[in-house]
């Protein structure tokens, strides 16, 4: 489906899973927690919300204005289940795409995640409203992956951008809902620990706010990617982040399970960008 093609929008309602704000900092253990400590101490807070279909209006949404953007981007990858092909072919494609679309001077891909609930060992789509980093953990990524250059790089504008693509299209099951950056403030975010065996990371969960304005792009195809701004160091009025979640699509019961890939990147901008 060409971008901005005239279509009938499929706006809908669905349940999104926020987090109740509590006295303790939320923490999720991806490893065995200490004795007496739960794997997860957060309290789910589901809300039925309207998710507006932005199909046919793609050009209205930009990563600087809204925190997300849909881009036409064919790929030469033949098998997204081959990690070596992803690294050899897809990583360079993503790096060049971000340079071309966002004006980045340098892009560093630091990991990727393939989702398919039907394949053993692969994660299912996440149902939690979240952002992958916080203002503290985003700079830490630069220090972790580019330690020799980090202090110099962090003197200038940088960001974390997720590049999300369907492996099989159109996406009918578990599409992504994206929150318009103009409809929330940092006060809605809840910093949460993500604990692995040898490292403690930090992500953002989200407290419900009826002012949040949600969008999705119906029937996303395999030659379309979503840019999702996870963090941007610029504090000049442009969107610094957006949060997102998958959701149960009430318009497509029984659709084949979604297959997708997300690539996470560090993006560095030229001076005065």
Order of helical and strand elements? EEEEHEEHHEEEEEEEE
* Percent helix: 10-25%
Which CATH class applies here? Mainly Beta
Report how far apart the termini are.
Answer: 32 Å
Instruction: Characterize the biggest β-sheet.
Output: 5 strands, mixed
Query: What coarse outline follows from CA principal-axis ratios?
Result: globular
User: What does the average pLDDT come to?
Assistant: 95
CATH architect. name? Sandwich
Strand order of the largest sheet: 1-3-11-8-13
What percent strand?
25-35%
Counting DSSP H or I runs of 4 or more residues, the number of helices is 3
Number of structural domains? 1
Uncertain regions: pLDDT < 50 for 5+ in a row?
none
**Rg from alpha-carbon coordinates:** 18 Å
- At the third CATH level, what is the topology name? Jelly Rolls
Given helix and strand content, the structural type is mainly beta
User: How many distinct beta strands?
Assistant: 14
Question: What are its keywords?
Answer:
273 residues; mainly beta; Jelly Rolls; five-stranded mixed β-sheet; 3 helices; 12% helix; globular
């Amino acid at each position: 489906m060409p971008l901005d093609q005239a279509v009938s929008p499929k706006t809908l309602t669905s349940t999104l899973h926020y987090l109740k704000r509590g006295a303790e900092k939320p923490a999720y253990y991806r490893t065995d927690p200490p004795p007496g400590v739960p794997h997860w101490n957060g309290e789910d807070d589901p809300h039925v919300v309207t998710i507006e279909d932005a199909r046919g209006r793609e050009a209205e949404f930009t990563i600087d204005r809204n925190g997300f953007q849909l881009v036409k981007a064919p790929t030469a990858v033949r098998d997204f289940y081959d990690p070596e092909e992803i690294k050899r072919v897809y990583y360079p494609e993503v790096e060049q795409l971000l340079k071309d679309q966002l004006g980045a001077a340098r892009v560093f891909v630091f990991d990727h995640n393939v989702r398919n609930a039907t394949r053993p060992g692969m994660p299912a789509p996440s149902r939690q409203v979240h952002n992958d980093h916080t203002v503290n953990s985003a700079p830490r990524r630069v220090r972790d992956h580019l330690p020799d250059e980090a202090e110099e790089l962090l003197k200038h504008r940088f960001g974390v951008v997720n590049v999300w693509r369907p492996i099989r299209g159109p996406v009918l099951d578990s599409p992504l809902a994206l929150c318009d950056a103009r409809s929330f403030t940092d006060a809605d975010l809840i910093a949460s620990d993500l604990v692995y065996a040898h490292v403690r990371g930090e992500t953002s969960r989200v407290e419900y706010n009826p002012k949040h304005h949600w969008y999705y792009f119906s029937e996303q195809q395999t030659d379309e990617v979503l840019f999702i701004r996870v963090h941007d160091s610029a504090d000049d009025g442009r969107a610094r982040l957006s949060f997102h979640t998958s959701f149960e699509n009430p318009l497509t019961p029984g659709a084949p399970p979604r297959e997708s890939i997300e690539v996470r990147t560090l993006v560095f901008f030229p001076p005065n960008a």
